Amino acid sequence: MKKFLVALCALAGFSFGSMIGMEALGEEQVQGGTASAAGRGFSGNAKTGDAEGLSLVNPARFAFDTKVVFNLNFAMEMTEARKDGSHYTLNSLSLPSFNLSFPMSDWGTMGVSLWQHYASSLKEDYTANGSKVEIEYKGSVYELVPTYAVRLPILRSFSLGASAHVVMGNTSRSMTLGADKSGLDEDDAWAGGNYRISDYVDGTWEIKDHPAYYTGALQYRGKLASFFFSYTTGYTLENTLDYNLRFSELDTLTSTRYTREIDVPALLATGINYRLAKRHNIMLDLTWRVWDDDVKNIAGGWNIPEATETQKDVMVSVGYQCDGSPLFYDSYLTRINYRVGAWFHSWYIKDVYEVGGSLGGGFPLGRKGTSLDVAIQGGKRFADTDHQWEEMFIGLRIGLTGIATWGMERR
User: Fold this and answer.
1) How far is CA 283 from the centre of its chain?
2) How far is CA 110 from CA 66, 106, 367, in A?
3) What is the DSSP string of 293-352?
4) 375 CA to centre of own chain
5) Of 9, 36, 257, nearest to 118 (Cα)?
6) For residue 184, what pLDDT is reported?
7) Taking 60 as the threshold, does the pLDDT of residue 34 lie above it?
8) In the predicted model, is pLDDT for residue 365 greater than 80?
9) Which of 44, 138, 244, 409 has a beta carbon 3.0–4.6 Å from 200's, enabling a disulfide?
10) Residue 95: other Cβ atoms inside 10 A
11) Strand, helix or coil at 274?
12) How confident is the model at residue 191 (pLDDT cuts 50, 70, 90)?
């Protein structure tokens, strides 16, 4: 089963948008990355409702669900990256998350999620100093997250939730350098040959000494306001890498194995949802993770730095959602969920920041509550130093949310 999930993760995360941090962990995805959350700036983890379902930073939220919720999300992004006169345009398609949750009456609610935590992808060919250079990165860190939440027996406005994060995934990098014939006369270039030196690195991800890391959360749902607090434990990622240096793709000059360890610190998260006139929701979310140690790079050759410096990983997101009418016989426009939001993200990589905004909608399909969620987002990733890429991005997220009443009696 785990091999099948790893294969699915590799396929789903094959292509991604950012060129920042590929030697480290790659681009960190917002927790869950659903299309509905993206439409409100990735805020709203404190918001409850039958169509909300799982939240990775707030496993206590879905204890208030009364129906089965299925959610599948796709993300498309176009990124324009610039650095030191170089310019690239990248297009990507990924499957950032899949979620399923089902309530069990007074016994609480159970769920499971598969989501992409980190991702990196690049394939580029160019010529430098007369030599042809080929570079390719492919990597994803995925998590399988079983979750359980329950409302407190007496204080029914409160709920507790817990989840385990089982890490899986793979990473690879290849760099190929052709022969440098720039110093030879044109008549003598044939003698230089077509020799190539290639550096291949392949590896897998897992957690050191533990099957998973864990999140615990407390949720309060009031008539006007709802809020949550959560804590996610720190853990150590192990990336076992095989290095192969080849000459003209025929002879392996050297083959070594190395395990890099990355200490990921604990995560604190909180958020509030305030409701006005029943249908209008104002949301604010905050996540905070303090990185103490640098992230070891894949490195291994070509004078690549051994580590990437880190900083405080902070994300602040604000959003607004106008809930659509639940009545099927109301006009279609009044049944749509309207969303808008913005966010600021201080990346785990030192001096790298991101700002963005989004618009979205939840479009009902049929009478049972199934909806198609669409979000358009855009923004900028930038750095305070010259050694990092600067990126402008625009993207589209599409999510299908299904609601059902499996195992429940008909009224």
Assistant:
1) 21
2) 12, 12, 25
3) SPEEP---STT--SEE-B-EEEEEEEEEEEPPPS-TTS-HHHHSEEEEEEEEEE-SBTTE
4) 16
5) 9
6) 42
7) yes
8) yes
9) 244
10) 20
11) strand
12) very low
Structure-token pair, residue 253: 């000059």
Phi, psi of 89 (to 5 degrees): -120, 120
Q: What is the pLDDT of residue 16?
A: 43
For 366, which DSSP code?
Answer: S
207: helix, strand or coil: strand
Burial bucket for residue 11 (CB in 10 Å: 0-12, 13-18, 19+): exposed
Closest of 242, 240, 241, 236 to residue 262, by C-alpha:
236
pLDDT in tens, 193-247: 556 677 788 888 999 989 999 999 999 999 899 999 999 999 999 988 888 777 6
Q: What amino acid is encoded at 3 in this protein?
A: K
Q: Which helix (H) or strand (E) holds 37?
A: helix 35-39
Distance CA 384, CA 191 (A): 46
Structure tokens at 34: 């659903």
- Which residues in 240-275 are b (16+ Cβ under 10 Å) and which e? ebebbbbeeeeeeeeeeeeebebbbbebebbbbbbb
CB proximity list for 397: less than 8 A, separation 6 or greater:
33, 34, 35, 38, 39, 73, 74, 75, 76, 96, 360, 373, 374, 375, 377
